[in-house]
């Protein structure tokens, strides 16, 4: 009986470990999905701004108000994207260059891609 108890405990521990791994992965997948959705939203906003500006140039329309609303939307979506990236980076132990957006090792002093000096956490 002692052996069986030991085996079932080990199986239980392994199942729990798998469960925790899956939880972590699901969380990562959710973050990545949300990031993709936000990036798509940002592209849509940029596209709309482009169309409105085109309309202004070609048809002499005044879309100033709508464009500035869209720009503030874009700014908040960009902030959400930056936050999601930061959360993903924390989980993967990586970072992104503030200038070019390249994936870089966490704590790197300079971006290996563009050479930009990075803000390193103390
Ligand atoms: Zn860079």
Describe this structure in words.
Helix content is 71%, strand content 5%. Helix 1 (2-59) packs antiparallel against helix 2. The chain is built from 2 helices and 2 strands; from the N terminus they run ααββ. The mean pLDDT is 86. The radius of gyration is 23 Å and the shape is elongated. The longest helix is centred in the N-terminal third of the chain and has 58 residues, at 2-59. The protein has helices at residues 2-59, 64-92; strands spanning 94-96, 103-105. It is mainly alpha-helical and 122 residues long. The protein has one domain (2-93). It has a two-stranded antiparallel ribbon. 3% of the residues are buried. Bound molecules: zinc ion. Residues 97, 99-100, 102, 111, 113-114, 116 line the site of zinc ion.
Ligand inventory: zinc ion
Structural class: mainly alpha
Identify low-pLDDT runs. none
Order of the strands making up the biggest sheet: 1-2
Number of distinct helices: 2
- Report the sheet-strand fraction: under 5%
How many domains is the backbone divided into?
A: 1
Cα separation of the termini: 54 Å
* Main pleated-sheet profile: 2 strands, antiparallel
The 3D shape can be described as: elongated
The portion of residues assigned to helices is over 70%
**How are helices and strands ordered from N to C?**
HHEE
Mean pLDDT: 86
Annotation, overall tally of beta strands: 2
């Amino acid at each position: 009986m002692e052996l069986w108890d030991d085996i079932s405990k080990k199986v239980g521990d392994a199942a729990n470990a798998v469960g925790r791994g899956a939880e972590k992965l699901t969380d990562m997948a959710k973050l990545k999905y949300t990031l993709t959705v936000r990036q798509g939203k940002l592209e849509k906003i940029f596209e709309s701004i482009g169309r409105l500006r085109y309309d202004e140039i070609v048809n002499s329309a005044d879309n100033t108000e709508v464009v500035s609303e869209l720009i503030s939307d874009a700014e908040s979506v960009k902030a959400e994207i930056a936050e999601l990236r930061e959360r993903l980076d924390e989980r993967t132990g990586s970072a992104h260059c503030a200038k070019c957006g390249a994936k870089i090792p966490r704590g790197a002093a300079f971006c290996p891609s563009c050479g930009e000096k990075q803000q390193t956490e103390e």
